[in-house]
Amino acid sequence: MEQPIFSTRAHVFQIDPNTKKNWVPTSKHAVTVSYFYDSTRNVYRIISLDGSKAIINSTISPNMTFTKTSQKFGQWADSRANTVYGLGFSSEHHLTRFAEKFQEFKEAARLAKEKSQEKMELTSTPSQESAGGDIQSPLTPESINGTDDERTTPEVTQNSEPRAEPSQNALPFTHSAGGRSKSDAHAHSAINKHWEAELATLKGNNAKLTAALLESTANVKQWKQQLAAYQEEAERLHKRVSELECQSSQANTVQSHKMELNQTIQELESTLRKKEEEIERLKEEVEHAKELQDQRDSLSQKLQEVETHNKDLEGQLTDLEQRLEKSQNEQEAFRNNLKTLLEILDGKIFELTELRDNLAKLLECS
Predict the structure, then answer these.
(1) pLDDT of 188-204, one tens digit each?
(2) Residue 229: HSE in the Cβ half-sphere, 13 Å Cα cutoff
(3) Where is the WH1 domain (predicted)?
């Protein structure tokens, strides 16, 4: 199972397959480039995806070399993919980190290859001593580890036992006219024990090789599945390369397009920095807007309270106006009543005056 162990971002290029001099961009923008470790095959790979499309699928081998061609650009050749990959980084620091990881995993791949070769040598050289003939090993390095060209499972007869019968010419026996001597019998017994021990050793080696074969057979199925997946991926990549070859134009056009892309990248980086600054400013404005929104909500609540209070006051004012109008009407009626009463009172006073004068006259006459 593959797991990513280091990732960075870069612009991906491949060498022009026609000119072998100019770079052809395989990604419109910076993409993630990762180192993967396949614990099943014990290999390291560099993989990069642009959406669902694999634009880098390179297995690191001990003979690969990563070269820095500028402060922000590096490249390496992949003989299996028959191409040269190029990566453009945003800074020299990212390029240096990627180059250090490349050297580290390249060394790990070399150690893994040496260890695998030693294991194959040990596995492919079991004890094959026999007096009567040679015993062939049921396993080979190809059957254990598998190859890209052929992954077949060798057939082994588990119950077959090597014949270890020595020939008469190989035994140090002497013949006489009367028969074997006692020393010959002891020698024959010692030789039989030697071959029995040798036969037991061969049986043990055969059991170990059989177990290794069973394990190898189980791994072959998994390797075949992985090989089918790799072949499918390789076909898809070849198809993509063909499409890119069809879409590619003359070398000058590609070089001009590359310069335009580099300029566009610089403009986009500048725009990105401005956008980040604007985002920070907008965040501050959003915080300030939240405070203003809280103040606005508080003022709206107070305004509603004031409007409610104004409505109450308007109702009271209307009531007072009605009462005032009613009071004015009552005052007017009261005035009219007073006027009428004064007129009546004046008449009565005039009558009383006349009555007094008459009484006075009567008193004078009497």
Answers:
(1) 677 777 777 778 878 87
(2) 8
(3) 1-109
The top-level CATH class assigned to 2-120 is mainly beta
Q: Please give the Cα distance from 345 to 348 (Å, whole number).
A: 5
For the chain, give percent helix, strand, coil, nearest 5: 60, 15, 25
Helices (H) and strands (E) in the chain, counts: 4, 8
pLDDT over threshold 50, residue 258: yes
> What is the amino acid identity at position 232?
E
Position 319, amino acid: D
Tokens 């609540």 identify what position? 301
- pLDDT score of 103: 94
Break the chain into its structural domains and give their ranges: 2-120, 128-167+190-228
Phi, psi for 31 (deg, rounded to 5): -125, 170
Is residue 43 within a helix (H) or strand (E), and if so which, with residue range? strand 43-50
Contact 24, 254 (CB under 8 A): yes
pLDDT digits (tens, 9 = 90+) for 178-191: 444 555 566 667 77
CA proximity to 170, closest of 154, 188, 146, 197: 188
Instruction: Tell me the C-alpha distance between 243 and 237, whole Å.
Output: 10
State the pLDDT confidence band at 88, using cuts at 50, 70 and 90.
very high
Q: Would you say residue 303 has pLDDT above 70? A: yes
